[in-house]
Amino acid sequence: MDEKLxxxxxxxxxxxxxxxxxxxxxxxxxxxxxxxxxxISDLTDELATAKSEVETAQEKASSDLEVATAEIESLKVDMxxxxxxxxxxxxxxxxxxxxxxxxxxxxxxAKVATEKIEKDIETAARMADLDELKIVRSxxxxxxxxxxxxxxxxxxxxxxxxxxxxxxxxxxLADAQENASDDDAxxxxxxxxxxxxxxxNAVSAALNMEVTVSDDMKxxxxxxxxxxxxxxxxx
Length: 235
Prior knowledge:
Elements: H1 3-132, H2 140-148, H3 152-185, H4 199-209, H5 217-220, H6 222-234
Helix pairs in contact: 1-2, 3-4, 3-6
């Protein structure tokens, strides 16, 4: 075969392969572009959807924020009102506590005053009782202060002791005066009236001693009677 023909055939075959390869490349490119376009379209749709969802979420979040903000402001107002009420309540409590303290003080003072009045009344009654029994000491104030602090049992015992003491002293004085009268009449049979003896002063002197009365009171005061009898006899 002619070399030129062979060369022409080769060139033609190469051209055919080249054209086929170019065609394949173009087809592949077109397919790739189409695929890319579809992908871009899908992504665009997804982006639009996502953007819409974001906008919706933002709108909801904004709305929720406004509601929350309004609620917070409302709560702040309520809290401010509550704070005012709490402060007012605290003030009232403090005033009530101060008033309670004052009332407690007044009550305590009134109680002390009442107890004093009751003590005064009781003491006055006791002293009146002692007056009636004629067993009040010459130091009346001292005796009053003493009986004021006694309980009922102690006062009853004290009153009984003084009453017994007065009775014993009066008996001794009576015996002394009787003995003195008998002595005055022994010489000539004529009774000479004894010198007057102030019984109340003698009793008062004995009471001022406040000697505890014992069962042998007459024995204890025998010396007193003898001394008085001797004094009357000497007169």
